[in-house]
Specification:
This protein is an alpha/beta fold. The chain is built from six helices and ten strands. The relative contact order is 0.19. It binds 6-phosphogluconic acid (6PG).
Length: about 250
């Protein structure tokens, strides 16, 4: 695995860089394999990136879009990660609807929803290795990423691609479905988008080689074949050791 940490003066500059990197990875995947398979992240940080991406060119007809995690709420609910992705990006670019794979959050209970999404992912990859071209991730103040929360049972799920998770300590307090570590770590590229002073201490923990994955799940992201890139704004990078700030 190679790891890259890039720090930008503002969240706007971070979003600009994220847009460039996502478009470049899409172009590379399409040139190499004829399609770009991406797992989007939720939360608030990626909204700016998604909005800007929607105004740029890409070979949208070759994009295939999943969510790395979502809240177990209807897709039109304001808390839905897929809903946010639709409003900011997916409704505004010509990706064929059949190439959008929202978590089936109408399926109850959340365990059955995760099982169905797991099947959708496996079927998409024809029962072979599940290798996303790009997984986007965020970082929670508590060290979670996707919906892999500190000390949650989901951290230990290795047989599933997708599992369910009860709410963590951060809002909103709803059940989740989430990709598991093996799927996240099988991606060709993983890109974290992290902004804000409230993330500074957690971000330093994630990059500490002694980090404990149970306490800081984001530290468990080590793509086996891919590149792990952190795009940070200056506030989120404020507590990083100097070696990361060259
Ligand atoms: C979610 C997420 C989650 C998110 C982080 C960061 O459903 O909330 O997918 O993992 O990426 O909590 O969120 P912010 O960007 O809002 O800080």
């Amino acid at each position: 695995m190679s790891r890259i940490v890039r720090v930008f003066p503002s969240s706007q500059a971070l979003a600009d860089a994220a847009v460039d990197q996502i478009r470049a990875l899409a172009a590379g995947a399409i040139a190499a394999r004829g399609r770009f398979v991406i797992a989007l992240t939720g939360g608030s940080t990626p909204e700016k990136t998604y909005q800007q991406l929607a105004h740029r060119k890409s070979d949208w007809g070759r994009w295939f879009v999943f969510m790395g995690d979502d809240r177990h709420v209807p897709l039109h609910d304001v808390r839905s990660n897929f809903g946010m992705s639709q409003r900011t990006l997916l409704n505004n670019v010509p990706i064929p609807p059949a190439q959008l794979f929202p978590p089936p959050t109408a399926v109850q209970p959340v365990e059955a929803c995760a099982e169905e999404y797991d099947r959708t992912v496996r079927t998409f990859f024809s029962g072979g290795p599940v290798i996303f071209d790009l997984v986007l991730l965020g970082l929670g103040d508590d060290g979670h990423t996707a919906s892999l929360f500190p000390h949650a049972a989901a951290l230990k799920r290795t047989a599933e691609c997708v599992t369910s998770s009860p709410p963590g300590i951060l809002p909103p307090p709803v059940n989740r479905v989430t990709f598991t570590f093996p799927v996240l770590n099988s991606a060709r590229d993983v890109l974290f988008l992290v902004a804000g002073a409230n993330k500074a201490g957690t971000m330093a923990r994630v990059l500490n080689p002694a980090a404990n994955v149970e306490d800081t799940p984001a530290a468990g992201i080590h793509p086996v074949r891919g590149t792990l890139t952190f795009l940070l704004d200056a506030a989120a990078a404020a507590q990083l050791p100097a070696e990361f700030l060259k």
